[in-house]
């Protein structure tokens, strides 16, 4: 097959995938995770049902791909904040606001792809662990990172942005405090 | 119906329920949540399938009842520790070890009864909020309690009992620290 043809297939595949995940994001925002069907996604994405089924066998696989893209976007956002500011506080606050806007119970519970969600969370823990090297030396960086990810998950359960900022302050106290004090 | 008959029905109902949930606990421990079937539960509990279906329409309803009983047991355990010791540290450490032994992702993800799991978590947050009255006055007790429940959930993701104790120390630092310090 000539290279041009290869490129054109890859471009088409990418376009279908992007349209599908954008349509899924819109449907999830409007109706929640259970409101997503293959027909609705195809219609909203402007692709035929047969084409959609060529790329995604079922709704679960679309939701998983959508969640992966979302987690990837969030990780890039956090990495950007770290590169720009070098401030752990800024990264943690940004993550807290992500949790506040996307309460974790919803995707975790309804996707019930625990391995998939667990893997996404591991990437985040690994990223944060890299920022925890100079934080407190009585606890390994990876445990501190897990503490942050879980504790900041509470941002999905608090009622206001002020409460999110208070939560971040409490989590930071935990990072800075000394054990057994 | 005579009272004696009523009592005997209630006793029978209670016995079936207890046997069912005990059998479910054993099956979950052996095979995980997805390994529980109506036939296996009936066999293990020593009740007929028809009897089982009279009390529980499906596996989901059994798992929900089992989870509710388990959460109730844990809450009673934590309340007992508080009554006996009056030490918040002891309550939080006990809860951390509960999370370590029952990693939350598993039931939360597979039961996908988010309202049910959310309600169970609310009871726990309310209980802990009652113990947070003198902790730090810049954050409402309920937010501190949510912080503890989420942060201690990380105990399900850490590899050792020593790591659980380090996590509890970090969480306590968060409770004791002062914001903006």
From TrEMBL, chains A, B:
Membrane-spanning segments: none
Keyword Zinc-finger: no
PROSITE patterns for the chain: HTH_TETR_2 (PS50977)
SUPFAM superfamilies: Homeodomain-like (SSF46689)
InterPro entries: Homeodomain-like_sf, HTH-type_TetR-like_transc_reg, HTH_TetR
Domain (HTH tetR-type): residue spans on this chain: 14-74
Entry's Gene Ontology molecular function annotations: DNA-binding transcription factor activity; transcription cis-regulatory region binding
Superkingdom of this protein's organism: Bacteria
Keywords: DNA-binding, Transcription, Transcription regulation
Gene3D superfamilies: Tetracycline Repressor, domain 2 (1.10.357.10)
Record-annotated DNA-binding residue ranges: 37-56
PANTHER family: HTH-TYPE TRANSCRIPTIONAL REGULATOR BETI (PTHR30055:SF234), HTH-TYPE TRANSCRIPTIONAL REGULATOR RUTR (PTHR30055)
Protein's name according to its UniProt entry: TetR family transcriptional regulator
Source species of the chain: Kribbella rubisoli
């Amino acid at each position: 097959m000539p290279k041009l043809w290869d490129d054109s297939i890859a471009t088409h595949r990418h376009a279908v995938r992007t349209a599908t995940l954008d349509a899924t994001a819109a449907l999830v925002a409007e109706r929640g995770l259970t409101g997503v069907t293959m027909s609705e996604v195809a219609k909203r994405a402007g692709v035929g049902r047969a084409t959609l089924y060529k790329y995604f066998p079922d709704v679960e696989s679309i939701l998983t791909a959508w969640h992966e893209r979302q987690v990837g976007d969030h990780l890039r956002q956090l990495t950007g904040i770290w590169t720009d500011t070098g401030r752990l506080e800024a990264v943690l606050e940004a993550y807290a606001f992500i949790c506040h806007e996307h309460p974790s119970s919803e995707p975790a519970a309804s996707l019930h792809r625990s391995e998939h969600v667990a893997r996404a969370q591991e990437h985040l823990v690994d990223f944060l662990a890299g920022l925890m090297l100079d934080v407190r030396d009585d606890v390994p960086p990876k445990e501190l990172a897990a503490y942050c990810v879980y504790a900041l998950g509470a941002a999905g359960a608090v009622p206001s942005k002020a409460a999110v900022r208070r939560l971040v302050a409490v989590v930071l106290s935990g990072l800075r405090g000394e054990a057994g004090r």
